Amino acid sequence: MQIHDKVSRSIRDSGWFPKVFRRIVNKAKEFLQNLIREHEMLPKPKGRSRIGSVQP
């Protein structure tokens, strides 16, 4: 089922609540922005240096 169909059914069954929808979208946006910020701040993994390694 498409998202449009689910939303249409929800509006038909429960009514239209644009403020609630906006709040949900804003909270999801905040959550994702915080997740991205946390990911960007993680230290990058240190790879092993290839300097001085012996090639076969």
**Mean pLDDT, all residues:** 80
Helix-strand sequence:
HH
Which strand-content bin applies to the residues?
under 5%
Work out the radius of gyration: 23 Å
Low-confidence segments: none
Can you tell me the overall shape?
elongated
What does this structure look like?
The longest helix is centred in the middle third of the chain and has 24 residues, at 18-41. The model has no long low-confidence stretch (mean pLDDT 80). The chain contains two helices and no strands. The chain is an all-alpha fold.
Keywords:
elongated; 56 residues; single chain; mainly alpha
List the topology elements.
Layout: H1 3-14, H2 18-41
Outline:
By secondary structure, the chain is an all-alpha fold. The protein has helices spanning 3-14, 18-41. The mean pLDDT is 80.
